[in-house]
Write the structure tokens for this entry.
Amino acid sequence: MSEGVYVGDAAVDAPGDRGWLLGHFKPAGDLRHSDEVEIKWGMHPPGDRRAAWVRGEARRALLILVSGRFRMEFPGRQVVLSKPGQYVVWGRGVDHSWYAEQESVVLTVRWPSVPGYAVPDATAAGTAADPAVAAGRAGADPAAAAGTGADPAGPAQAH
């Protein structure tokens, strides 16, 4: 790495930090350390589901589908992304979860990068969990566990 430049490969770097490429959790002095933004390259096998809903989210987020079919779940609404480039943005305080309907790659950007979020034990939940579940804010959502509930009719379906 040259000073001021970091060159990486998201497919190689992401699994080492549960998908996260940039954020407050990277070591101080690392170019990928940021208090302003977090970036994740999420690689999800079919059927991969968030271990628990994020409750009381303190950040804004943007999720862009790179490949596959990926469902974002919000209270009373689901959004299915099925074409590369489709995206969803949500604001502070919006509870959410996700489900990979097919093998999927997604790019997530969150801001600001907020310390104090903890990762649930993914092996206990049987899934590759996202490390953004807030300590004390996560809880299972019975509706999410009931089945996919997805509308296969078309792309970026808002439910």
